[in-house]
Amino acid sequence: MADLSAFPITKRWPASHPDRIQLYSFGTPNGVKASIALEELGLPYETHLVSIMKDEQKTPEFLSLNPNNKIPAILDPNGPGGHPLALWESGAILIYLAEKTGQLLPADPAKRLETLQWLFFQVGGVGPMFGQFGFFYKFAGREIEDKRPLERYRDESKRLLGVLDKQLDGREWLAGDAYSIADIATFPWVRALKTGYGAEDVLGLSAFGHVTAWLDRALARPAVQKGLEVLNAK
Hints:
50% of the residues lie in helices and 8% in strands. The chain is an alpha+beta fold. Strands 2-1-3-4 form a four-stranded mixed β-sheet, covered by helices on one side. A hairpin with an 8-residue loop joins strand 3 (73-76) and strand 4. Helix 2 packs across helix 7. The longest helix has 31 residues, at 109-139.
């Protein structure tokens, strides 16, 4: 039986199954990446909901694991060398889980780098830009008379959708024929444009046919459905 008592986060979110990966997350586009990957990889894990609506990610217990107060984060009792590993940043978590299992990240060096390229495209572009667009479009637009921020992030989001659409022309998945952590990182953000922000019309999402077909393929996967469900993703 693994002993996780050295990690203060387990005081607020006790582990019922300390031998499993502990997932601390919430149903945001970033938050569901880890739960989807865990489901796809078939790794035993235990879910702890960290409500960002209640600022639980800012509590001392959560900050003891992730000083950047962002979800998701994981605690793997069987990390490298058999020692417990605490890890945060969704991209790093996806790479770690893929390398731990030898799945969802190609072993071939060129294909591996292509996959990581598109993963970082999401981390550095899609997530921040879609997130800022959503903030100004759904949450802050009424309070800000200057529409330039909204227009800037709207236009950049449409540009990024165009990049994705071109990449998916003739491809099943972002990095080629194989479903990968690049897809898991990215499609929850495209999904959020519809389900979270209600912005499919203002962005003309239906015009990006390759993107919408790819999103449908991803959402049809049973592991994706379960990964969304466990965090009550909206």
